[in-house]
Structures are given as C-alpha cells and as structure tokens.
Design goal:
The protein is mostly helical. It is about 30% helix and about 0% strand. The chain is built from 2 helices and no strands. The longest helix has 29 residues, at about 20-50. The N and C termini lie far apart (about 100 Å). The mean pLDDT is about 75.
Length: about 110
Amino acid sequence: MAAKGPKSRPAKHPRPAPRNLGVATITAGIAALGIGAAFLGLFVRRARTNPAEHAAPDLALGRPHPGPHDRAPDAFRPDPTAPVPEAMRESLRPATGPAPGFAADRGSTIGV
C-alpha cells in the first residue's frame, strides 16, 4: 500500500452559512408589518367615529350662503353702546409698545 500524503486527503467541504439570521429577520419584518397594519386599522376606525362632532344644518351645502350685504341676526350682534365693565377695560386697551420678536431691533441697547 502506498502511503497517503497530505495532498491525498479528501478536501473539506465548506459549511453553508447558517440561515437563522435571515429567517429571524424575515420573521421580525412580517411581525412588524402585522402590528403596523393592526394599529393603522384601529386608527382609521377611531378616526371615523368622532362623538364630538354634530350635524350643523345651517351649514348644509344645499342652503343659500349669506352674502356680503347680509347681517347677523339681532341676537348675535354686539351692542356698541353697552358700557364696558371696569374689570375688562385693561384687557380691551390697545397695545402701545413694540411688537414682540425674537431678535432685538437695530440700534437697540437691549442686553448690553
């Protein structure tokens, strides 16, 4: 019998890469899609039923809209001759200072 050297050994077959990572990634993706679809379904269903809304027949599309010369009913008009209570006078006083802003005006000494 002839002695077998290192070259006569059968070659090792390389192991195939494990598929566990790919299967786990696909499974996680399918699960995320399913959860997202469930949340989307709940959101759409909840958005359709809003108990705070009510029918407004005076704003119906078939009713005529008021024109520029129509006035509000008397019950909804403010009385311009009514006296202003003392507690409300300060809140109704016009603003006399500069408008607030994010940056100082040019030439101002704010913050110096």
